[in-house]
Amino acid sequence: PKELYExxxxxxxxxxxxxxxxxxxxxxxxxxxxxxxxxxxxxxxFMMALVIIPDQDMWTIMIWLFQLxxxxxxxxxxxxxxxxxxxxxxxxxxxxxxIIRGIVVPSEK
Length: 109
Fold this sequence. Notes:
By secondary structure, the chain is an all-alpha fold. Helix content is about 80%, strand content about 0%. The protein is elongated, with a radius of gyration of 21 Å. The chain starts with a helix and ends with a helix.
């Protein structure tokens, strides 16, 4: 809101401190969502690893899970999918407080 910047001007805040104290603190929830989306996109990258990267040592875990589907029992596949979801869950747990605060706090005003 414009009033926050006007109040910071009255208090004598500079442009840099207004940016960090107001803009960045209000932007934390969306930055957490973007970080979660960027990590998930990079972690689950499938086509680039399958088509472009010939070296199997550089493949992502999703390529290995795709190959595992053709030669394993379904229970092993499901267990490996749960293990593959753990890093995304950990990143979400770190970002969860910021995301929830961005949803709840604006509605409480």
